[in-house]
Design a protein that fits this description.
The chain is an all-alpha fold and 75 residues long. The chain is 80% helix and 0% strand.
Length: 75
């Protein structure tokens, strides 16, 4: 087997970054939907707590993937 092309690896990393960014935006929209839409501002529900957890996880993954991508770009 031949080694993969470095530019294709870099392109794959950028695709992963875009997908994790979109997941982070979706979880941010979930926070808005569960906290502020409907009967006004509601806090403490299960859905709202899970939306915050989802946002924390996806933002962490996005930041980590961006740091990995930027570190490989500088090499």
């Amino acid at each position: 087997m031949s080694k993969p092309n470095p530019s294709s690896i870099q392109a794959l990393r950028w695709v992963i970054n875009v997908l994790t960014f979109l997941a982070m935006l979706a979880s941010l929209a979930g926070i808005y939907e569960t906290h502020f839409v409907g009967a006004g501002a509601t806090f403490g529900t299960t859905g709202a707590s899970l939306a915050i957890i989802a946002f924390a996880i996806t933002s962490h993954l996005w930041i980590k993937s961006m740091a990995c991508c930027m570190a490989s770009c500088e090499k």
